[in-house]
UniProtKB/TrEMBL annotation:
This is (thale cress) hypothetical protein. Keywords: Signal. InterPro entries: TPD1. Residues 1-23 form the signal peptide.
């Protein structure tokens, strides 16, 4: 029987806005240039939130640069 258990691995987002005004735990977002590695590259599983705060005047969509979906 097939399962819909999928996890995301090595998620990288385009986040040019991240600055040092609001400290962000580097295990959640590790910035390199305009890219940020999410959750230290570890699996991101359904129904588990990864939460961080940022300082910006307007809201915007986060853009995915890279990542691997693993389903089994």
């Amino acid at each position: 029987m097939a399962s819909n258990a999928c996890k995301l691995l090595c998620l990288v987002l385009f986040l040019a806005f991240v600055n040092q005004v609001t400290p962000i735990d580097t295990s959640l977002l590790l910035k390199s240039g305009d890219a940020c590695l999410v959750n230290a590259g570890k699996f991101i599983v359904p129904h588990v939130d990864i939460v961080f705060k940022y300082v910006w005047d307007t809201s915007f969509d986060l853009k995915v640069i890279d990542g691997v979906m693993v389903c089994y």
